[in-house]
Structure formats: C-alpha cells, structure tokens
Amino acid sequence: MFDRLQKKWKVGGLQLFLILCTFAIGGSLTGFVGKKIMNALEIRQDWLWAIIYILLITIIWPLAVLMVSIVFGQFSFFIKYIRKIGSKMGIGKSRS
Q1: What is the pLDDT of residue 96?
Q2: What is the 3-state secondary structure (H, E, C) of the chain?
Q3: What's the whole-model pTM score?
Q4: 68 exposed, middle or buried (CB, 10 Å; 0-12, 13-18, 19+)?
Q5: Structure confidence at residue 93 (pLDDT)
Q6: Left if phi > 0, otherwise alpha if psi is -120 to 50, otherwise beta: which for 91?
Q7: Closest Cα partner for 82 from 57, 61, 55, 52?
C-alpha cells in the first residue's frame, strides 16, 4: 500500500511519512476545531447540526492541512493536492 502511494505521488519514504503525518494531524485538527465551533453555535436540531458541521468541515480541512503542511515542509505537495481536489469538484482551475 505504501509503495503504491510513493509511486502515485512520486515521493520518497521520508516524504511519504511526512505527508501521512500531515493528513493525520490536519484531520484531527479539523475535527477539534469543527466541534469547538459547533458547540459555540448551540444548534438544537440534529439535522441542521449535521448539515452545518459537514459544510464547516469541508471549509476547515484544506486550511488545517495547509497550515500543518507548512510545519512539516510539505506545503508544495498539499497546495497541488488541494487544487487537484478542487478542480475535480469544479472549484477553480486545474493547475497541474
């Protein structure tokens, strides 16, 4: 599995490790910040809470991953990765 990711992303072993750490920490940070914001909003309806949470996480995740990627020195990888995801979603232009 890791060999496949290395080939797909064209990275070495250390860089793959740093990328996976960035994904893990960025995802955890996203959940933490999202929950804090949702608790501050005090929304009572479950359906509305779920919709707002999903939208909030969708906005927070790229920002959190980019911030963490700076610390791990993987910003150039993640800016390309997020642009690629955005272009697949029809947001912005593809700069591959």
Answers
A1: 52
A2: CHHHHHHHHCCCHHHHHHHHHHHHHHHHHHHHHHHHHHHHHCCCCHHHHHHHHHHHHHHHHHHHHHHHHHHCCCHHHHHHHHHHHHHHCCCCCCCC
A3: 0.82
A4: buried
A5: 65
A6: beta
A7: 61
Instruction: Specify the pLDDT at position 20.
Output: 96
Measure the CA–CA gap between 74 and 39, rounded to whole angstroms. 31
**What averages of pLDDT result for each successive group of 10 residues across the chain (96 residues)?**
91 95 96 94 92 95 96 95 88 62
**pLDDT given for residue 15 in this prediction:** 95
How far apart (Å, rounded) are the C-alpha atoms in residues 11 and 13? 7
Cα separation, 71 vs 74, whole angstroms: 8
